[in-house]
Write a structure and sequence with these properties.
The complex is a heterodimer of chains A (632) and B (532).
Chain A: H1 7-22, H2 28-55, E1 63-73, E2 76-84, H3 86-109, H4 116-135, H5 139-157, H6 164-195, H7 200-208, H8 214-231, H9 240-243, H10 249-258, H11 263-270, H12 272-277, H13 279-300, H14 306-326, H15 330-357, H16 377-389, H17 395-409, H18 413-438, H19 457-472, H20 488-493, H21 506-533, H22 537-544, H23 546-553, H24 558-596, H25 602-607, H26 612-631
Antiparallel strand pairs in A: 1-2
Helix pairs in contact in A: 1-2, 1-4, 2-3, 2-4, 3-4, 3-10, 3-15, 3-19, 4-5, 5-6, 5-10, 6-8, 8-11, 8-13, 10-15, 11-15, 13-14, 13-18, 14-15, 14-17, 14-18, 15-16, 15-17, 15-19, 16-18, 16-19, 17-18, 17-21, 18-21, 22-23
Chain B: H1 3-7, H2 10-26, H3 33-57, E1 66-71, E2 80-84, H4 89-109, H5 114-133, H6 137-146, H7 148-158, H8 163-196, H9 203-207, H10 213-230, H11 239-246, H12 249-274, H13 276-302, H14 307-326, H15 331-362, H16 373-376, H17 378-391, H18 398-413, H19 415-440, H20 456-474, H21 477-497, H22 521-528
Antiparallel strand pairs in B: 1-2
Helix pairs in contact in B: 2-3, 2-5, 3-4, 3-5, 4-5, 4-12, 4-15, 4-20, 5-6, 5-7, 5-12, 6-8, 7-8, 8-10, 8-11, 10-12, 10-13, 11-14, 12-13, 12-14, 12-15, 13-14, 13-19, 14-15, 14-18, 14-19, 15-17, 15-18, 15-20, 15-21, 17-19, 17-20, 18-19, 18-20
The chains are: A mainly alpha (632), B mainly alpha (532).
């Protein structure tokens, strides 16, 4: 079974192709079954390959398979080749596992949609490209998946394309990503030209062996990271992700929370040899991550759209992952990627269940008191909220702690402090969401006759499974005071990514854990005071600090700034250039010089007679003259 | 090679079959539109089928022209001399592939003087293929000029409102360039006579002349202007939007897909090999114009209100990348440029077909008149998107292969120019997806209920291109391998004739000891780049 691992991406790919071509003719049942089965098969194959991998002796290389030579021209070669090592296994299991649950959830969530088959075709296609991205053995093929998931993101954000906002958000996502991708391509070009190939093992070997000039490594690492800031929605290219919430909610869960947006983190871990060898680049990664974590968390504090809160939360949490990678704790970054995939997709799907129950309502100011109506959604949401807040013994607690410990152990106390502050904010905005949505007075504005109802089982079962993982997934990576070997996850990944910073003494680490726990509880307590005990407090605070409040609600006006500084000058400028330069100056000059070139006056009139025979005559005269000249 | 094929003058047949078909059309009654269309389509399809024999029969190991036919014609070196090599083969295929699709696409759009229309389309096909297969400069020039005539009529008769203005502009621009080329041909002809005492305009003979640098400079300028207009290179591009906007859809398809390629092909076949030292000294200037074209064309495309002129400006941008790669003068860039020429031919040809399909329904090309068309035209929406993405260079589709090879080739010659070239990744996504959003997405704007999905005939036009878009994107080796030897030979010939540095920034790349690839292809990279 395991040697068939290269089929893992191809099965959903084939299913997507069938759905694109014949989806309109198939029954809804068939479409749903086929789409889910394809991902399920991939999940089974991934599990088989994973089982094979862990039985291999330590140090043995993973599985590789070259399908064919794709692009090759002189020194440029790029094969279609897949690899399956420990790091890949984690990603494929997350993509196919969480992906499967979201496919199942979608069968109910999208059951009534007019374009049911198109939805599942795109969802399968996304799974295909995401698996290509994580299984590629070189950067160029990774870029294929990288762009491919971007395309699917575009298609699914703009799924309800009649809505102008959705169409606009889809396009924004693609174009902003392309800005990052241009830098990504330059990074690839530098590597191809200087390493002689783009396979990950080659790059990491070259970087680790000190064979590349350090300036070059830093440049390449930063160029690739700019690509990651696009895909993974970090400063300065995060602006597309909040808008991406225009897509169907399961899409937000799969693409814009659990998998695609974490591709940048995966890329950095995949090239941990390169990043570890470049101190400046790692510093940039860590600080961008930390800044994004705080910046986005602050915006999440004041959002009223339930999905927007989760979107900013995703940006913030991915910032944590980069913070981990930047301080050298690559395994911790991956660990948080995995736990985040569980609890964030859980939160999104549960939010979807809320939205579903309220017939499309997303504004939390028109929710409240829903815990009585949603007996499954509420507890699983609570589990997700506790997990992301870092409350002890749930998954997010362990993974966030691993990152913070990594920062502290690396001597990066400022980054550690930023992470700790972020943890307070995270707990605060999550429980603000919980209180506004599930507690307090019912503020729903439902039409009479439409009662609030719990979602069907195809939606709640995935929620329960994800809740279980959100609660328990942390136990694969326990802190050091549970013993040297407690960090199963870190030891498992040791062969694929650079190992992290030195371990701390047990008492220090214990203290850090206590502080992290305290900050989570502080955030929850503050949310309780603000949104449960004294609900008037937020508005009092907002009127006390109107500037800060407006800044946050206005999302720091970054969209407006980009619009004013980049987009509008570019478009307006291009319009001016077109009207005043292209049409007048260039065209005018060329038309003028054509006239001046002996065709003035009557000659021009003659030529503009529009009579074809005149031109034919001229041509004939020319040709005869030419022939005559040559033959004489 | 198949013995049967070698005995048949296949190149000539592929070249002149369309002309024969055009002459045959004269004897078909013009009133029986169906018969005219059927004959024209059948002839062009047969031409394509025969051109496939060229493809499959082409060996490509030697890098020399194959299927060569050489016969005295007018004497004194004005010979009939044709053949295909790895550089021209695929352009011949492109012309032969797109002509039947262009004919088929015009079955509804053109219902006036169908016989004449089909006649000129077929004559145009012979002209296009003829230019690519010519191995003699005289034949090349005759066909290069002759090709103008059918294009002139196609735009002038079946064009839009400002067709006369656009036609004259197109003809004047092209003629102006060509006239200088003609003078250049005279000079070359006499230079050959002075050097050898014989007469020849065979391209291979002329390439070995060893002209003085001063003469090379003047001749390169004379030829280069003709080619630069055709490409079109910034700032000589303004005839293109006018010609495209006014041309009938079928004319736009061939104009964008094939005629523009003749400019780049002219540089590869004549401009650079005949005058290598001049080409090298002009490479910086031309590269900068090409880069300006990439960015400028992209920005202009962004603000067009007419779909056709948007696609026209996108061609200026894309052709800029191709020219930048051509003037990088190394192996990967040259193969990338050739592959990108084909890809651009397919995707831009298909873009014009798509615009034509929309225009046929609503009789407007203005973007603002559309909205939400995807709701009414789901199949068209999918195809249009694939075509756009192919043009935007999405990996897995054809555009990416040429683009990444161009990028890499340009990068090895000059990193700064490559960085500017890469901006096309952003710009093309912006103007194409913005077009798509405004036309296909958003609330439906179709007050008169004119939008309906593609019918079978339209599918028959588009599906072959979509299939090729995928095949070329996934299996580019089938094309690149047939180019390899010819491209190597082309670059070798430049090196032997121009021992001085051909890249204009030799210090751009220091030898980095860390080349750890160790594969055999490694050193070839340096060899291909002609810089020592």
């Amino acid at each position: 079974m395991a040697e068939l691992f290269w089929l893992i991406p191809l099965i959903p790919g084939a299913s997507a192709l069938l759905l694109v071509l014949f989806g309109a003719k198939l029954s809804r049942r068939w479409v749903a079954w086929q789409a889910c089965s394809a991902v399920f098969l991939s999940f089974l194959l991934s599990s088989a390959a994973f089982a094979h991998l862990v039985r291999l002796p330590p140090g043995a290389p993973g599985l590789t398979k070259t399908l064919f030579a794709w692009i090759s021209s002189g020194p440029f070669t790029s094969p279609i080749a897949f690899a399956f090592d420990h790091l890949t296994a984690v990603m494929t299991l997350v993509v196919t596992g969480v992906g499967l649950l979201i496919h199942v959830y979608s069968t109910a969530y999208m059951a009534e949609d007019r374009s049911h088959a198109r939805y599942f075709a795109h969802l399968n296609l996304f799974t295909f490209f995401m698996l290509v991205l994580v299984m590629a053995s070189d950067l160029v093929l990774m870029f294929v998946g990288w762009e491919g998931v971007g395309l699917c993101s575009y298609l699914l954000i703009g799924f309800w394309f009649e809505r102008p906002a959705a169409a606009k958000a889809g396009m924004k996502a693609f174009v902003v990503n392309r800005v990052g991708d241009a830098a990504f391509i330059l990074g690839i070009l530098f590597l191809l030209a200087n390493v002689g190939g783009s396979s990950f093992s080659l790059i990491n070997k070259a970087a680790g062996g000190g064979l590349l000039p350090s300036g070059l490594m830093t440049l390449v690492a930063i160029l690739l990271f700019i690509g990651a800031t696009g895909k993974s929605a970090q400063i300065p290219l995060y602006v597309w992700l909040p808008d991406a919430m225009e897509g169907p909610t399961p899409v937000s869960a799969l693409i814009h929370a659990a998998t695609m947006v974490t591709a940048g983190v995966y890329m950095v871990c995949r090239l941990s040899g390169l990043y570890a060898a470049s101190g400046p680049a790692s510093t940039v990664v860590a600080w961008i991550g930390a800044a994004t974590a705080l910046f986005a968390a602050a915006m999440a504090l004041v959002q009223n759209d339930i999905k927007k809160v989760l979107a900013y939360s995703t940006i913030s949490q991915i910032g944590y992952m980069f913070l981990g990678c930047g301080v050298g704790a690559y395994a911790a970054g991956m660990f948080h990627l995995v736990t985040h995939a569980f609890f964030k997709s859980l939160l999104f799907l549960a939010a979807g269940s809320v939205i579903h129950a309220l017939a499309g309502e997303q504004d939390m100011r028109r929710m409240g008191g829903l815990r009585k109506h949603l007996p499954v959604t509420f507890p699983v949401f609570l589990v997700g909220a506790l997990a992301i807040s870092g409350v002890p013994f749930l998954s997010g607690f362990f993974s966030k702690d691993a990152i913070l410990t990594g920062a502290f152990a690396g001597g990066q106390y400022a980054l550690w402090g930023a992470g700790l502050l972020g943890a307070v904010l995270t707990a605060f905005y999550m429980f603000r969401l919980v209180y506004m949505t599930f507690y307090g007075k019912e503020r729903t504005a439902m039409e009479p006759g439409h009662s609030i109802h719990e979602s069907p089982r195809a939606m709640t079962i995935p929620l329960v499974i994800l809740a279980a993982f959100s609660a328990l997934a942390g136990y694969v990576g326990l802190p050091v005071f549970f013993g040297e070997k407690a960090d199963l996850f870190g030891r498992y990944l040791a062969s694929s990514v650079k190992s992290g910073s030195p371990h701390l003494a047990v008492p220090t680490e214990g203290l850090l854990v206590l502080l992290a726990t305290a900050s989570a509880l502080l955030g929850i307590a503050l949310a309780f005071v603000f949104y449960r005990r004294t609900p008037a407090l937020p508005s009092r605070l907002a009127s006390r600090f109107p500037g800060v409040y407006r800044l946050l609600v206005g999302k720091y006006y970054i969209d407006e700034v980009y619009d004013a500084v980049v987009v509008r000058p570019l478009v307006r400028g291009a319009e001016k250039v077109y009207e005043r330069f292209d049409l007048k100056v260039i065209d005018g000059a060329l038309n003028g010089s054509a006239a001046a070139a002996g065709l003035a006056g009557k000659g021009l009139n003659f030529l503009q007679s529009g009579l074809v025979r005149d031109y034919a005559l001229a041509f004939l005269i020319g040709a005869i003259t030419f022939l005559g000249f040559l033959l004489l | 090679m198949n013995a049967m094929i070698t005995n048949v003058p296949l190149t000539s047949i592929v070249t002149f079959l369309p002309l024969a078909g055009a002459l045959l059309l004269i004897f078909v009654r013009g009133e029986s539109v169906r018969a005219v269309r059927a004959v024209a389509l059948a002839v062009s399809l047969l031409t394509f089928a025969l051109s496939l024999l060229l493809f499959f029969g082409f060996d490509g190991k030697s890098g020399l022209p194959e299927f060569v036919e050489h016969a005295p014609w007018l004497g004194r070196g004005l010979d009939y001399h044709v053949g295909v090599d790895g550089i021209s083969l695929f352009l011949v295929l492109l012309a032969a592939f797109l002509t039947p699709l262009a004919l088929l696409s015009s079955w509804r759009a053109v219902d006036d003087r169908v016989k004449e229309f089909s006649f000129f389309m077929l004559v145009l096909e012979t002209g296009m293929i003829g230019v690519f297969v010519s191995l003699n400069l005289f034949l090349f020039y005759v066909l290069w000029e002759a090709m103008l005539i059918p294009m002139y009529f196609l735009i002038g008769i079946w064009g839009g409102r400002r067709r006369i203005y656009a036609t004259m502009k197109f003809v004047l621009f092209t003629m102006f360039g060509s006239l200088l080329m003609l003078v250049g041909i005279f000079v070359l002809y006499s230079a050959y006579h002075r050097a050898t005492g014989g007469f020849s305009l065979a391209i291979s003979d002329l390439a070995g002349l060893g002209l003085s640098p001063a003469l090379q400079t003047w001749l390169f300028l004379a030829f280069g202007l003709a080619f630069a207009v055709k490409v079109p290179l910034f700032p000589l591009h303004t005839w293109l939007p006018d010609a495209h906007v006014e041309a009938p859809a079928a004319g736009s398809v061939l104009l964008a897909a094939v005629l523009l390629k003749m400019g780049a092909y002219g540089f590869l076949r004549l401009g650079i090999p005949l005058f290598p030292q001049a080409a090298a000294s002009f490479a910086p200037a031309l590269s900068i114009l090409a880069v300006i074209g990439i960015v400028y064309g992209g920005l202009m495309a962004l603000v067009q209100k007419d779909m056709k002129s948007l696609v026209a400006y996108s061609s200026v941008s894309h052709m800029g990348l191709i020219m930048l790669a051509v003037f990088s003068l190394n192996f990967v860039a040259t193969e990338g440029a050739l592959d990108q020429m084909l890809s651009h031919g397919l995707s831009t040809g298909a873009l014009f077909l798509c615009v034509g399909i929309l225009y046929e329904r609503t009789h407007t090309r203005l973007i603002k008149d559309y909205g939400g068309a995807a709701a009414r035209m789901p199949v068209f929406a999918a195809i249009f998107l694939v075509v756009l993405l192919s043009s935007a260079g999405l990996p897995g589709l054809n555009g990416f292969v040429g683009e990444i090879l161009c990028f890499f080739g340009i990068f090895t010659s000059n990193k700064v120019l490559a960085a500017f070239g890469v901006s096309t990744v952003i710009l093309s996504a912006a103007y194409l997806l913005w077009l798509y959003r405004r036309v296909m997405h958003g609330p439906l704007r179709d007050p008169d209920g004119l939008l309906r999905d593609v019918d079978r005939r339209e599918l028959a036009c588009l599906v072959p291109i979509v299939v090729l878009i995928f095949l070329m994107g996934l299996f580019p080796g089938a094309i690149l391998r047939k180019m390899d030897a010819s491209v190597s030979r082309y670059l070798d010939s430049l090196r032997t004739k121009a021992p001085v540095s051909l890249t204009w920034k030799p210090a751009a790349r220091k030898a980095i000891p860390a080349r750890i690839s160790g594969d055999a292809a490694g050193p070839a990279q340096l060899d291909g780049r002609l810089e020592r």
